[in-house]
């Protein structure tokens, strides 16, 4: 004869099941939200003319991939023709040709101002407009300020400040007259915070951020959106957390981003989200740099800082 189930035992079983079911439900909803968000992002760039500067390095390459599969008409810029062609072949080989456009390749050295102006003209002549400019190229330098020559300081400013602003200025009249367009500056948290041994790089990133912050306020009335995406550290493809014991793995799982930085794929998807949602200022940072920025900017108009 079966034993009667006493109500307390029933409640115990239900309580044990509630938590996993709740977690399963939340994960399912999150998954659906991410998928819908990804598809929505893609539709936001379909048929759009998108220029990516330095499409051949880590983040630029990933941006090229997400925008290409999203159906954008891509203009891929880079300093090295062979690497551009390799990227082109990789994009073409995996994408569905019925849903994507053949990218245009353009040689571009951002520190050569006349080359930048020629490229802007070439792109406008070819497509008639640019819908989205992703200003991603950048030159890095690390070392004590007194050991870095003035020539190198100037070179960094050319590549990271004068180059991007020249390209922007050349494309802006077209965006203003069409009353549409978006400029995304991929910057660095060092554009807001100073750290040792990065004087030239951080100064160029501060300058670029200053320019694009002002521009945002200036072109808002023409429906041109200016966005800045500032990661702390982008992980290299080759750096992978090694195998270890489980405590080390758990530690690595939770502090992966702190230790290894954001993966280029995650940053590229954030760039895509930034375009879709027309976000103004995005920081991909852990709580400590975020708090430092918050502390530095206390007193500024709140609407100005759209933290992620
Ligand atoms: N990596 C990070 O941890 C990190 C963190 C925060 C923000 N960011 C920002 O994210 C963006 C992409 O960084 P990344 O790490 O993917 O790139 P990256 O590995 O630093 O490579 C930089 C790329 O820019 C190119 N470049 C340099 N000077 C140029 C110029 N004058 N004209 C055209 N291209 C030029 C380089 O070409 P060559 O190799 O031929 O010189 C290289 O392909 C940059 O704006 C960077 O500041 C990076």
List keywords for this structure.
single chain, 308 residues, alpha/beta, Rossmann fold, 9 helices, disordered C terminus, binds NADP nicotinamide-adenine-dinucleotide phosphate
Describe, in short, the structure shown.
This protein has 308 residues and is an alpha/beta fold. It has helices at residues 7-45, 58-69, 81-94, 113-127, 150-178, 199-219, 246-260, 264-277, 287-296, and strands at 49-52, 73-78, 104-107, 132-135, 181-186, 224-231, 281-284. The chain has one domain: 3-Layer(aba) Sandwich (Rossmann fold).
Question: What does it look like?
Answer:
The protein is α/β, with parallel strands linked by helices and 308 residues long. The protein has a single domain, classed as Rossmann fold (3-Layer(aba) Sandwich). Helix content is 55%, strand content 12%. The chain contains nine helices and seven strands; from the N terminus they run αβαβαβαβαβαβααβα. The protein has helices at residues 7-45, 58-69, 81-94, 113-127, 150-178, 199-219, 246-260, 264-277, 287-296, and strands spanning 49-52, 73-78, 104-107, 132-135, 181-186, 224-231, 281-284. A seven-stranded parallel beta sheet has the order 3-2-1-4-5-6-7, sandwiched between helices. The model is unreliable at 299-308 (pLDDT under 50). The protein binds NADP nicotinamide-adenine-dinucleotide phosphate (NAP). The site of NADP nicotinamide-adenine-dinucleotide phosphate has 25 residues, from α2 and α5. NADP nicotinamide-adenine-dinucleotide phosphate (NAP) binds at residues 54, 56-60, 79-80, 108-111, 136-140, 159, 163, 186, 188, 231, 233-234, 261.
